[in-house]
Amino acid sequence: MKERMISEEFLNKMNDLLGQEEYEAYLKTFEEERLYGLRVNTLKITPEKFTEMTALKLKPVPWIPNGFYYEGDERPAKDPYYYAGLYYLQEPSAMTPASLLNIVPGDKVLDLCAAPGGKSTELGAKLKGKGLLVSNDISSSRAKALLKNLELWGIGNICVTSEEPKKLKEAFGEFFDKILVDAPCSGEGMFRKDGDMVKSYEEHGPEYYAGIQREIMDQAVDMLVAGGFLLYSTCTFSLCENEDIIRRTLELHKDMELISLPLFEGASGGISLSGCLRLFPHKIRGEGHFMALLKKKGSPADHKAWEQETRKQPPLPEELSDFLSMVSMPMEQSRIRIKKDMVYYLPEYFPEYAGGLRYLRTGLLLGEMKKGRFEPGQAFAMALRPEEFKQTISWEKQDERVIRYLKGETISLKGEEGPLKGWCLVCVEGFPLGFAKGSGAALKNKYYPGWRWQ
């Protein structure tokens, strides 16, 4: 076993949990290299098309249709396709929870413990621009990383909040069709991947996190509509954080029932509670995970969209209307809001009554009004398709101007490309990166400084 300060107490618990033969197989995984994975953004591209385009050496994750392994010596975060939001870097087992929650376009979805966004980005892609995704994380700094990843993926029908679950329950009530609770946990399943998890485990073990998990689940159940589904997941092995949490939830909330998750090759069922799903690193090519799917009894209510006729808005500023005339993406003017010069496109089913929350974002940030002009934002660019904007320029990935654009430099146009005047959507291989403003033979860079290539 590699040098790791893993306590004898933990090892004894794993021996008891697995039995001697499986325990020995589990120990051998610490001699293996950790695995690296990426998940393709199906909102922008199919997995088949992506594998044709990329130079990365990929192998499919067998149980995730858009998941792939890549080699540890590759640098996929330093690739223009990453900046185009075509994929998310994620440990293979961690891709599983979002894949098991059956999201339908138009659903109202809550990702309760969402940062840094690995699961939220997949939930948002499944919505296909319809319905509402509320992504929450109690940590404001982590929620900022969450917001960036959602906007990088081009997901506009979002609300990003940073609140305790109790306050969300007070604001929303029984509102969501689907809820994902990827609960904070002791992280036993990640010891091979991240040695720092071992240090954290010594400070706060399973019993500490079990108390937090019980409280989160109580709040989550109260926010689920009748007929709705709740997926609970952790990256730990302990019974008290997994099956015991589910068993307690079922005992306290009689309107909840456990829905059996299908097993796939290498996956295991629950321990002492059938219907759950466990992933062990000695059985699959991934780290440790636990999942359980719950349903609230009763018939689902019909979705109620907001009543647009009762929400009359003042006419849009002329400069904003002029810019939007260049956009063919379907938009309803009644959902456009201007607040402190920032322009937002609110999601379908946006609960305007849910005030008093710490919102980092409400909907798609279109841009900003600036002294008689409108300047479009980075998130707007990422949510567009090239054919949805009047003036577009696309470069091949090998074109050195792609990296120069991502670094924030002014770009000179080649003869056949110009002249270009006014706002332009800059793309790589047909996938948007951001906006620029043409001045004839050059493009003034408008790529968001906080996202620049370092």
From TrEMBL:
SUPFAM superfamilies named among the record's database cross-references: S-adenosyl-L-methionine-dependent methyltransferases (SSF53335)
GO BP term, example: RNA methylation
Keyword Transferase: yes
Top-level lineage group: Bacteria
InterPro entries: Methyltr_RsmF_N (IPR031341), MeTrfase_RsmB-F_NOP2_cat (IPR049560), MeTrfase_RsmB-F_NOP2_dom (IPR001678), Nol1_Nop2_Fmu_2 (IPR027391), RCMT (IPR023267), RsmB/NOL1/NOP2-like_CS (IPR018314), RsmF_methylt_CI (IPR031340), SAM-dependent_MTases_sf (IPR029063)
Keyword ATP-binding included in the entry's annotation: no
Domain SAM-dependent MTase RsmB/NOP-type: 10-297
Cross-referenced Pfam families: Methyltr_RsmB-F (PF01189), Methyltr_RsmF_N (PF17125), Methyltranf_PUA (PF13636), RsmF_methylt_CI (PF17126)
Residues at the active site: 235 (nucleophile)
Assigned protein family: Belongs to the class I-like SAM-binding methyltransferase superfamily. RsmB/NOP family.
Entry-linked PANTHER family: 28S RRNA (CYTOSINE(4447)-C(5))-METHYLTRANSFERASE-RELATED, NOP2 YEAST -RELATED NOL1/NOP2/FMU SUN DOMAIN-CONTAINING
Protein name (database record): Fmu (Sun) domain protein
Lineage: Bacteria, Bacillati, Bacillota, Clostridia, Lachnospirales
